[in-house]
Design brief:
Shape: globular
Helix content: 25-40%
Order of helices and strands: EEEEHHH
Radius of gyration: 16 Å
Structural class: alpha+beta
Strand order of the largest sheet: 1-2
Number of strands: 4
Strand content: 15-25%
Distance between the termini: 28 Å
Length: about 120
């Protein structure tokens, strides 16, 4: 099963959905309908694994970033792994020093602004 953009998921597509939250086990579930909902709030959280479970569906934590607009459709499924590799130094820094180190680095290097500037 390949990763794909949420907008590219169609009715009758299969998704990995959590059916037992206590064990973290996933099963295929068929998409029965599709709608777009725009809400204000948090987005693009960086996780150690690059994955999230949202409303019971396994999704990538990586949102639209610097390669999304130039990556050929046939290679879009590779984007999460590329972005995960890009974020490896930040994850290592977090493992070594936790939130205090990340806040210090951001105050000196302006990492959030840098990541935003890299976006096309």
């Amino acid at each position: 099963m390949r990763m794909k953009r949420a907008g590219d998921v169609d009715v009758d597509s299969d998704l990995l959905c959590a059916f037992d939250n206590s064990t973290g086990t996933f099963a295929l579930s068929r998409v029965l309908s599709k709608e777009t909902v725009l809400l204000q709030g948090l987005y693009a959280p960086f996780t150690m694994t690059g994955n999230l479970v949202v409303n019971g569906v396994l999704v990538s934590a990586h949102s639209d970033w610097y390669l999304d607009r130039v990556m050929p459709q046939s290679h879009v499924h590779r984007l999460p792994a590329i972005y995960q590799a890009t974020m490896a130094p930040a994850r290592l820094a977090y493992r070594l020093g936790g939130a205090p180190l990340m806040e210090f680095l951001d105050s000196k290097l302006h990492l959030v602004e840098l990541a935003s500037a890299v976006s096309l």
